[in-house]
Automatic annotation (TrEMBL):
PANTHER family: GROUP II PYRIDOXAL-5-PHOSPHATE DECARBOXYLASE (PTHR11999), MIP05841P (PTHR11999:SF70). GO terms for biological process: amino acid metabolic process; carboxylic acid metabolic process. One of its GO terms (molecular function) is pyridoxal phosphate binding. InterPro entries: Aromatic_deC (IPR010977), PyrdxlP-dep_de-COase (IPR002129), PyrdxlP-dep_Trfase (IPR015424), PyrdxlP-dep_Trfase_major (IPR015421), PyrdxlP-dep_Trfase_small (IPR015422). It comes from the Bacteria. Its cofactor is pyridoxal 5'-phosphate. This is Aspartate aminotransferase family protein. SUPFAM superfamilies: PLP-dependent transferases (SSF53383).
Length: 459
């Protein structure tokens, strides 16, 4: 192995050039690459006794797997809520691997200062006050986990228990209220030992997947002043709709409830003056979760969490050992001790494109979503299942069951021009399209609508 490592190190400039050329070839072909693919998996390779070396390993990967990679970084991948990677973020991410900094401890690198600065830039972008302390995590799922762990600590401290030291044994259940919480919230509750069934559903407003603030208040009154965690959505996953954060926040403030805002992609509405009103009342939040690999357009995996209760957060995630030092390091804010330098791609793209660039990115995505909604509403094949609030288009075939919808998705994937994801909304099998990639432009919209029209005719 030492011989291979020494040889690869001596040829590192050429190896990096080969990687650069491979990446450029892939990125240049993104507009033509199938948006989604479903290849037949290859039989797995065994571990070689003698290594191949970096050049042959790269060649093997490209020959064996690259054709089966989707164009998820491209302009017409509308599945999930998936951003691309801006040029500045890509540069930053390549440097992250080269620098290989561990963001746990601030004692030997300025990398932690970059993370704090990047978090400050994000606070400014979202209009959050200095009360909100943050950290980078792997995505909104981890951000929800951190937020709810902190909320659990807060709730049980109010009952006289330090759950971070004593555990949950024999403690009363903490009520969690929400209208349409994302699956990642339920996953976090499972991990935390609170359970998915801890969520008590708050009735939603008619025809919308958002909480009725009056119903929320009635449930809080019925709980009699017990500590409660309320989950609000800033961008519901199917429709992009928003809970009324101002009304919900005022109710939570009156009853002393913790308000967590899951803003995985919707938090970026703050970038656009035309949509910022959707976040009115965000200042009432006790914790906020969001993704970077969605509308910030930095590579996977990237997310961030903000809280106004750093003391409770650090009690949960504190890691104390003599070799770690005793400073107020970022490792006390997240589940990870070893942490990648995720802040650098975010810092790079924020500094490269600024407030105006991110406003334009968000507004273009919203305009494209509206355009797609208008095109589908005029189509003989499709119907909108919900108004287009932000960047999500929720729609369905005008006729047919889930099996026809699934055949449609298969036809779209075979066509290759556009990728959507399935959903179930308003008791109908539907589809979702999410616009959050910086590469997507007006020229893509007629291609998307044409692909959807052709697929509908085939099923």
């Amino acid at each position: 192995m030492r011989d291979l490592l020494s040889r690869d190190l001596s040829r590192l400039p050429d190896l990096l050039e080969q990687a650069r050329a491979s990446a450029l070839e892939f990125l240049t072909a993104l507009p033509e690459r199938p948006a989604g693919v479903r290849p037949e998996p290859s039989s797995p390779l065994g571990l070689p006794d003698a290594g191949l070396g970096a050049e042959d390993a790269l060649a093997l990967f490209r020959r064996r797997y690259e054709a089966g990679l989707s164009g998820s970084a491209g302009p017409r991948y509308l599945g999930f809520v998936t951003g691309g990677t801006t040029p500045a973020a890509l540069v930053g991410d390549w440097l992250v691997s080269a620098y290989d900094q561990n963001l746990s401890n601030s004692g030997d690198s300025l990398a932690t200062s970059v993370e704090h600065e990047a978090l400050g830039l994000l606070r400014s972008l979202f209009g959050l006050s200095e009360d909100f302390e943050g950290a980078f995590v792997s995505g909104a799922t981890a951000a929800n986990l951190v937020s709810l762990a902190t909320a659990r600590q807060w709730a049980l401290e109010r009952l006289g228990h330090d759950v971070s030291e004593e555990g949950l044994w024999g403690l009363p259940r903490v009520a969690v209220l929400g209208g349409a919480p994302h699956a990642s919230v339920l996953k976090a509750l499972s991990i935390l030992g609170m359970g998915r069934r801890a969520v008590q559903a708050v009735p939603c407003l008619p025809g919308r997947p958002v909480m009725d603030p009056k119903a929320l208040e009635a449930q809080l009154v019925a709980l009699g002043g017990a500590p409660v965690i309320v989950i609000a959505s800033a961008g519901e996953v199917n429709t992009g709709d928003f809970d009324d954060l101002e009304a919900v926040g005022q109710v939570c403030r009156r009853h002393g409830a913790w308000l967590h805002v899951d803003g995985a992609f919707g938090l970026f509405a703050a970038c656009s003056p035309a949509h910022a009103h959707l976040l009115r009342g965000l200042a009432y939040a006790d914790s906020v979760a969001a993704d970077g690999h969605k509308w910030l357009n930095v590579p996977y995996d990237s997310g961030f969490v903000f809280t106004r209760h750093l003391a409770q957060q650090e009690r949960v995630f504190r890691a104390v050992a003599a070799y770690l030092g005793q400073g107020p390091d970022l490792l006390h804010r997240t589940p990870e001790n070893s942490r990648r330098f995720r802040a650098l791609p975010a810092w790079m793209t924020l500094m490269a494109y600024g407030r105006d660039g991110h406003r334009a990115l968000v507004e273009r995505g919203c305009a494209l979503a509206r355009g797609m909604g208008e095109g589908l509403a005029a189509s003989p094949h499709y119907a909108l299942l919900a108004p287009v609030t932000l960047n999500i288009v929720c729609f369905a075939l005008r006729s047919g069951d889930a099996s026809r919808r699934d055949r449609l998705l298969g036809a779209l994937q075979a066509d290759g021009r556009v990728q959507c994801t399935p959903t179930q909304y308003a008791d109908r099998p539907g589809l979702r399209a999410a616009f959050s990639n910086w590469r997507t432009g007006e020229a893509d919209l007629p291609v998307i609508l044409a692909a959807l029209g052709a697929a509908a005719l085939r099923v």
